[in-house]
Amino acid sequence: MVLPTPPTLEAPASPDPTRTAARTAAPTPTPALPLAAAAAAAACFIGMDATVKTLAPRFDALQLTFLRFAAGSLFALPLWLWFRPALPGRAQWRWHLLRCALLLASLLSYFHALTLLPLVQTVAVGYLAPILISLLAMLVLRERPSRWIWAALALGLAGVGVSLWPELRGSALPGSADRVQGLLAVTCSAFTYSGVVVLARHQAQRDALWSILLVQNLLPTAVLLLPMAWRWPALQAADAGPVLLIGLLATCGLLGVTWAFSRLEASRAAPIEYTGFVWAALLGFVLFGELPTAYSATSAALIIGGCLLLLRK
Fold this sequence. Notes:
- The protein is mainly alpha-helical.
- The chain contains 13 helices and no strands.
């Protein structure tokens, strides 16, 4: 996952030369802390997915998406008020609106998949996103792609095929159609999420992190308020904890991975995201009694292998 880096602070007008010399002479920071932050961020995102899945029996994908953004707003707004960065300029709002639309489509698809698939399978197929991000960045941002991009794409598609194969072969079995629908939904989520990240790269050069965090939570919440007026979820007192946890984990995950990527090369930090697969398998077993199948493990290995190929020059 590639996320915008935090804004840099302007240096004071008359810096203390002693402090400046000390900073210059300071040793290069160890990568251990950024790598630990990236691993913690991956755990936070998987924890958010697992918490959403615990609510899936009582809420549909649209309601879960609204609760995710509303809970995120409860953390994004105080952070923005604390740091008080400038809001995006008028010319940038069209890009925020487009990103909001793609983010809504991505989470709606992903949360729908979580209601139909095991957690570990949803996470594995969702790892297609880095490959698709590289393809989209090549087309939209004119980035020079690695020569391994096509091999990575082939492995990623093979991984999706491995996930789909048992469901297509057993299409007459109960529940198979729902699982195929879930796999298609998470694939759609990976496509739309790639657009979200490419736009994040674009916006990170123009807007502050805290402003992006605020807009990407408040704007989808406002968009979903109207449909929620007709289908407001019947929340219970016991739901408050999981809903707040979703917002907290999403915010901590975003800030953790942003901090890591701002202090370590992306090529070194990116593979740490795949530690999330271990958390997905563990939480899937503990919370839902799910055991990864041979197909799920093979699918994950192919997709993650394809993503790792992107790190080659």
